[in-house]
Amino acid sequence: MDGTNMGRLNRLSLSLEERAELSSKVDAAASAAKLRSLLVVGSANIAYLTGGVVFPYLDQRMTHPVALHINFASGRRTILCTADLVDIPGDCGWDGEVLLYELVEPTPEQALAHAIQSVISRDGNSGASIGFDAIHMSGGLHRALTDCMPDRRFHAIDGFMRDLRITKTSAEIRMLEIAARIGDRGYISALNHAEGAALDRLSFPLWEYAERFRVHVGEFEGSGVGNLAVMQGQRAQDLQHRIGTREVFEDQSYLRLEYSMSNRGYWNAGSRTAYVGKPGANARQCYADNLTLRTSAVDALTAGARACDVFHAVKAASVRLSIPFWEEAELGHGVGTSEREAPYLAPHDMTILRADMVVTLGVYTFGENRELICNRDLYRVRDGRAELLSWYKDWNYLYPIHGTSARHG
């Protein structure tokens, strides 16, 4: 990685020029689709269309819902939110309009709907039909919108947004590459805490291993951590499993961390497997088998192939090499302003892969006692071999945690 590229990766947010590039892509797609205006409430869609405005816990049905309205005819872009959230758009570099609404109606959805109605009526040229992200909108908000705007027709644009977001601009790829780097740095720091203490029964409990990943992601300027789980031993036979508050590291066991984390609204979903103690030949071979199948997946990950072809390539290699893998989930999926989006590297997804799609890819194979082993990385689809975006450290050998560092923590 040369100095120029490292400088590029030190700019953690989208620049004004990069936001303008993304906005031009949106405008061109809307023009081609004859879309005059749209209304979105999903956090991933808001983050995408604003160039990185992220509201906390938006998809956990916060009490005060947020919406974004874009009028392509006038160029007016409006975020609607309550007063407690008003500082967020400016903090995230938003240069559009922010309109506050007050909770003076029987429900927050009705209050937001009336505020949206005032924006649309004011603009005048929004058109009779308004696109909205139906899969993210609650029934209560949809009913409130149709009640207060009976003269308008709302049509779903979920397919439009999927097609728009599925390929990334160079700036978005940069944001995802930074997220991958922060994720690995957080993981390595969690390993450093565990070294020298993993086999000390007086040391920290297993759940704190995941907690230290979360803390270090923040220290390396990650914006947040989403799903997070740590499994070892028999519990590692499941994709995710609850751990007890008193569980500690177990010698001679696989230790797998599943995580998702964000860089300014752009998400990385990863999985890493280490080993507590000194792994024997069988443990090392199980890990090598995992990398063998992952290589077959990466070889198939190329522009022009179908998403399902990647899964079928691993299936064929599994049969040919007698290396079973866990087939109950896809091998990977797209990432962007959400941690899970199209395309899906699964048998059912016929999507044609295109250059500049970004996916998280990992194959789950089995350890000696049916534990799930996986190392999941981010890749950029290209016309040739896919480009590895999580390059900070390779994980081509099973990492052992066996007490080589001084106790820490």
Features:
409 residues, alpha+beta, 6-stranded mixed β-sheet, 5-stranded antiparallel β-sheet, 17 strands, 11 helices
Question: What layout of secondary structure does this protein have?
Answer:
Elements lengths: L2 H7 L6 H17 L4 E4 L2 H8 L16 E5 L5 E5 L5 H5 L5 E4 L7 H16 L5 E4 L6 H10 L4 E4 L1 H8 L4 H25 L11 H14 L4 E9 L20 E11 L2 E11 L4 H20 L6 H15 L10 E3 L6 E4 L13 E4 L3 E2 L5 E2 L3 E4 L6 E2 L10 E3 L8
Parallel strand pairs: 1-5, 3-4, 5-6, 9-17
Antiparallel strand pairs: 1-2, 2-3, 7-8, 8-9, 10-11, 10-12, 12-15, 13-14, 15-16
Helix pairs in contact: 5-6, 8-9, 10-11
Question: What's the short version?
Answer:
The chain is of the alpha+beta class and 409 residues long.
Description:
The chain is of the alpha+beta class and 409 residues long. 35% of the residues lie in helices and 20% in strands. It has helices spanning 3-9, 16-32, 43-50, 87-91, 108-123, 139-148, 158-165, 170-194, 206-219, 281-300, 307-321, and strands at 37-40, 67-71, 77-81, 97-100, 129-132, 153-156, 224-232, 253-263, 266-276, 332-334, 341-344, 358-361, 365-366, 372-373, 377-380, 387-388, 399-401. The strands form 4 sheets. It has a 6-stranded mixed β-sheet. The chain has a 5-stranded antiparallel β-sheet with strand order 11-10-12-15-16, with helices on both faces. A hairpin with a 2-residue loop joins strand 8 and strand 9 (266-276). It is globular, with a radius of gyration of 23 Å.
